[in-house]
# Entry
Amino acid sequence: MGIGKWQGPEKKTNMHFSSTPVTPIGLSSGVIDIASGFYHHCALLSSGKVKCWGENTDKVLGISDEGLPIVTVKGGYERACSPTPVEVPGIDNAKAIASGGNTTCVLTSDGSVKCWGAGVAEPEIIKGLENDIIGIAVSSDRQK
# Structure
């Protein structure tokens, strides 16, 4: 995912997929880690910033759907998507990243954990995990 888009006859955008590895547009250098959920991917950059791309189901890209193209995905469902990486606002000091299902979390340089997705568009600090955290993991179980 993330190698371009085209508009079909109904003026709805469709995603291109590749069976071979590709470098997402705008991520040719500075990537130190990648995390993937159900239908999204996020890159941790050497700058401490994070960029995500794919479907924005449950706000997994760290942004609202506003301005994103509507894409027809497998099964004929329409979803807001970004085929190119978008910067997650409020993240500039991440040192580790993990994704699972429809959630992504980062461990920041100050030891706090911030997560987004599962309906939360902008990263939020997870209360109770503000200090002394040394690693993170995210489950793919869907809990609502």
Summary: Residues 1-11 have pLDDT under 50 and may be disordered.
